[in-house]
Structure formats: C-alpha cells, structure tokens
Amino acid sequence: MNTVRRGTIHLLPTTEDDCCAPARPHTLPTDRAALAARRFKALADTTRLGILATLVANADPVCACDLGDDVALGQPTVAHHLKVLRDAGLIVAERRGKWAHYQLHPGAAGWIRATLAALPDDAPEGPR
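^ that's the sequence the OP posted. Answer follows.
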C-alpha cells in the first residue's frame, strides 16, 4: 500500500487498484442535446435575452416595431435577432398587415420562463 503525498498534506492510503467508482455517463438523446444547443446559442446575446424578456412580460403578441424600442439597434438588426430566435424554435410570428407580431413559441414558453428566471441577479463572485 502506498501513501500519496502532496506538499505537507497527507492523503488517505491507496493501493494500485484502489480508485473511485467510475462515473456513469448520463445519456442525453442526440435530438434533445441538439435542440438545447440551438436554444442556448440563441440565448447567448443580450439583445435576444431582452427580446425574450419583453415577450415573457406580455401576454399578447408584440409588434416587431415595438421590440426595437428599448435597444439602440436599427430595425434590420432587430429583425436578424428575431430570425435567430425563430430558427431556434423560441418564438413564433404572425403577420398582421405590414408588421409581424411575435410571441413565445407555445412548446418552448415554459422552458424560456424557467431559463430567464434562473439567470443570476448579481455578478459572480471571484474564482473559487
């Protein structure tokens, strides 16, 4: 039996074949992993998070012309962000005349609300 030493810290005695139990991998179905990755990529932008927060706060669909009001971006840039969110399956659009009105995708609304609610309220503490 060998004793592992690192600096002045004495660790528990070990044998050559003594190790921790092997980790059991969690099997995440490929389709669920791909969907989650698409969604998280779409969320990786403060403008898109803001758009989603606006949609969460409104029970009725919101006109695209109103979604650019709280950000200093032009309508083409806002339209790009809306497309990214649509492609990720997070929002849906309904055309009403000249404008599109957006709301959370019914199949993703619960996930979006839970994800936004889980965002930290404060800056992280330093490294641990």
